[in-house]
């Protein structure tokens, strides 16, 4: 199983894009602007989106991905997320105003975009593994994802503030090899991190006791243009027993 980072940043700019990870060829975790880097042939192979939450930097490219599947013979795409997140997609993204309502087109019984409810602890079957929804604590309802492959497992926090339940859950996964955690704010902005349901390095550090020595901890959702400055502070703040690095577009992880 191969996980490829397509977009990992909190915003846009040359060389950076918002959150989207490709799992093998058929599954996306989130559908931010990073997905736009895939060639059309690969976009057409995507069958499902595992969505963390309703913010545009994570779901904003779902309508364009749906366009790649409209008027084709295939089954379209299925978006998995919590009921609150799917309700937000229905009310705002597929309201028929911002974009055609692909959740009811071409036929409400067989639409190009299907919305499937999932709650924390539930699992989606993938071709070569599983995806399980993990708890998160964001400013809107959110989840993380645990992707379990034949050899290793990968966990992604999604957007979140401090969420001990996420870290307790991943520390129990024996095959866990890689964790991607968001850090959106510098330590001096920890009050804003808390206000908007995000993390700074000093807010994340106390949550990592359950991770074994040498675990790879990737950092995502950095502020475009501030990556170097933020990573210097993050490395100085997080435990040195972990392998801490920024995850950038193009990074591959074998599971
Ligand atoms: Zn968010
Ligand atoms: Zn975000």
TrEMBL record:
InterPro entries documented for this protein: Metallo-B-lactamas (IPR001279), Pdiesterase2 (IPR000396), RibonucZ/Hydroxyglut_hydro (IPR036866)
Domain Metallo-beta-lactamase: 17-221
Matching SMART domains: Lactamase_B
Superkingdom of origin organism: Bacteria
UniProt name for this protein: 3',5'-cyclic-nucleotide phosphodiesterase
């Amino acid at each position: 199983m191969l996980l490829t980072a397509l977009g990992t940043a909190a915003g846009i700019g040359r060389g950076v894009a918002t959150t989207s990870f490709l799992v093998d060829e058929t599954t996306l975790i989130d559908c931010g602007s990073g997905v736009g880097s895939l060639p059309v042939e690969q976009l057409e192979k995507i069958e499902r989106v595992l969505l963390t939450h309703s913010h545009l930097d994570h779901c904003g490219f779902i309508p364009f991905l749906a366009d790649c599947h409209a008027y084709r013979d295939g089954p379209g795409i299925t978006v998995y997320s919590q009921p609150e997140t799917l309700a937000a997609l229905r009310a705002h993204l597929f309201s028929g105003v911002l974009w055609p309502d692909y959740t009811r087109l071409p036929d409400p019984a067989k639409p190009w975009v299907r919305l499937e409810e999932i709650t924390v602890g539930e699992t989606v079957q993938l071709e070569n593994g599983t995806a399980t929804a993990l708890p998160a604590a964001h400013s809107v309802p959110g989840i993380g994802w645990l992707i379990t492959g034949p050899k290793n497992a990968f966990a992604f926090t999604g957007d979140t503030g401090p969420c001990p339940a996420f870290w307790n859950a991943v520390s129990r996964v024996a095959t866990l090899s890689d964790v991607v955690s968001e850090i959106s704010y510098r330590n001096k902005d920890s009050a804003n991190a808390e206000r908007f349901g995000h993390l700074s390095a000093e807010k994340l550090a106390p949550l990592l006791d359950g991770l074994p020595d040498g675990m790879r901890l990737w950092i995502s959702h950095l502020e475009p243009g501030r990556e170097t400055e933020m990573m210097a502070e993050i490395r100085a703040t997080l435990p040195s027993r972990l392998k801490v690095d920024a995850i950038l577009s193009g990074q591959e992880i074998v599971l």
